[in-house]
Structures are given as structure tokens and as C-alpha cells.
Amino acid sequence: MNTKSCFAILLILPLPLAAVPVGRGPVPKPIKCEGHKTFVVSVAVSPDGKLVASGSDDQTLRLWRAADGKPLYTVSAADPLVKGGWVGAVAFTPNGKKVVANTPRRGLQFYASMTGKRAAGHAPLQNGAYGVAFSADGKLLAAAGDNWVRVYDAAKGQRLHEFTLNRRQVGRAWRVAFTPDGKHLAAALHSFGGREREGPLVRIWELATGKEVFTAWTGGHANAVAFSPNGKLLAAGGENDGTVEVYDWAANKRRARFQADPHVVFCLAFSADGKKLYTGGNDPEVKRWDAATGKAAGKLHGHTDQVADLALSKDGKVLATAGRDRRVLIWHLAAKK
């Protein structure tokens, strides 16, 4: 499949958001987690919603208690495994017992979620990774890096797949996401140069065969990809003037296209029921949208600068966000949205 297929284009402009509540009841107030010294790059929520992990340009991995934002531990630049660069990607294992963090020049390192001590597991990478993701069964770990997307045996660190990207089209792979059944992997890619040199920057591979089965998105970096909980829809966001696109990827059809930010979208995630999308971008608000239509469905205030990353617990009740304002915010949502 490729981008030459005809899409039915649905352009939906965002509605005013100021008076729109999130879910039922009052708009929740966030718990503020402060301690990072610079830009917070990445955030993850444990599957049970009890822990939040964050990575920063200050070279630290920090763990927070989701219930009240209490800091649990920090893995700092004093750790030789982290020294030398930002912690640009974090993720919990599906059982929540470990957290994996990108450690530039030394690969992906595993830590015990409750203690911060080194744990079994390692994926050697020369220059670290920009994005990481686990399959739902925890057996596979995907990483996005310079001109490649790789899939590892999460327990052994053995490389199982590598998808090499054309350097004339792609500068780096930025984010990755598995389908819920673990059979396919999506990637959001950054272009190498001018738009005339770009290829499709959202791609899906079938892991059993290594074949590229879906491509989309041209004309600006793709910063984020996410599958709906049933795996049927793929959402992508990036630097196409803050656009989000939602695809029925198996049918090679675009279901919705809307502007989620005036400039750029950095992150997005589906709600637990798959009906809503949360997005973060250049604006300091976290925005919520109807995934089928692109209509505005609410926003959350709390950050004072760009929203760089966001993540939801498996049941959709806990939302964590990371910002350029050095804050991690934790939202306890009233409903499974």
C-alpha cells in the first residue's frame, strides 16, 4: 500500500475549546511534579496507573507516585550508564515491574520500577533511541533511531528485525508503536531535507514478513503515532501545520484529518475506549478530540509551555504529560476517556 491510493479528505477545523469540559463533571486539576532542571522530553504511565516515569534533557530518569506526585527516585547523570546525554525515551514493561530508559551511547537500560535499581534487560545501541515501545505481551521491544527502526527480544536483548530507512528521505525515526496483537509496528519519521525529497513519513511493517504494508504522511516531520485499542485505527501527528490524521490502515483509508495545534503536534494517545484522542503540541494545553470526526472535545490547562509528551494508563483514568516548562503533570480523569 502507498500514498498514491486515493483518500477521501475530511478537513475539520478546531472548535473553540475554552468552555469545553473533559468528560463528565468538572475539569480535573493536575498534580504538579517538579524537579527536572530542563525540558522534560518523555513520560510514561505504568499499566496499573500507580507510577509515572519521566526523562529529561537534564540527563535524569525520575519516577513519581501517580496518586500524589511524590518523587520516588532519580537516576541521574552521576550514573555512568546515563552520563553523556538526554533521557529521551521511557516506557514501562506491560507488567509494570520495570521501566526502560534511553541512555545515549549505551543503549536502552532497564530499572526496577519501585526501586530504580538496575534490572535484567539491555538493548545495545550506539547512539541511543528517540522512541521506544513494548508489545502488549512484553516479549518485544521496539526502538527508533538514526535511519533505522529495530525490534528486540525484550528479555534477551537480541535483535530480531531491523528496518533501514532511505537517508535521502528520512533523517531519523522518532516514535514507534505496536498494534495490540503485536503483529505490526508503526513508526513516525523525520524527513532528511526539503519537502521535495521526502517520502512517506508514517509507515507500518508486518513483523512476520518484514514487509511494509502501509505508508502515509508527506510534507513535514511526523512526530507521533498511536494505534486505537482495537488496532483498527492509526493516528499520526506532526509538523504539517499541527495536523492530526486518523487512518483505517488495513483498508488504506484516511478517516479524519484536523488541525490540533496552530504549529506542531508532538504527541498523541487514544482514550481507553478508542473514541477520543489526546494531543500535545506547541500550545501549552492538552487537547481532546473525537477520534472519528476530529471535533474538539475539551482541553486541560496546567503547562506554561509546549507539551512534549503524554501517556495514559491502560484503563484511561491516569494521564501524565511532560512539558518544556520542566514540569510533569498527572491528571486523574473522572471517567475512562
> What is the rounded Rg?
18 Å
N- to C-terminal separation? 32 Å
Shape call? globular
- Helix and strand content put the structural class at mainly beta
Strand and helix map with partners:
Elements: E1 11-12, E2 31-34, E3 40-45, E4 51-56, E5 61-65, E6 71-75, E7 90-92, E8 98-103, E9 107-112, E10 118-123, E11 131-134, E12 140-145, E13 148-153, E14 159-164, E15 170-178, E16 184-191, E17 202-206, E18 211-216, E19 222-227, E20 233-238, E21 243-248, E22 253-259, E23 265-270, E24 276-281, E25 286-290, E26 296-300, E27 307-312, E28 318-323, E29 327-332
Parallel strand pairs: 1-22
Antiparallel strand pairs: 2-29, 3-4, 4-5, 5-6, 7-8, 8-9, 9-10, 11-12, 12-13, 13-14, 15-16, 16-17, 17-18, 19-20, 20-21, 21-22, 23-24, 24-25, 25-26, 27-28, 28-29
What's the gist of this structure?
With 337 residues, this protein is mainly beta. It has no helices and 29 strands.
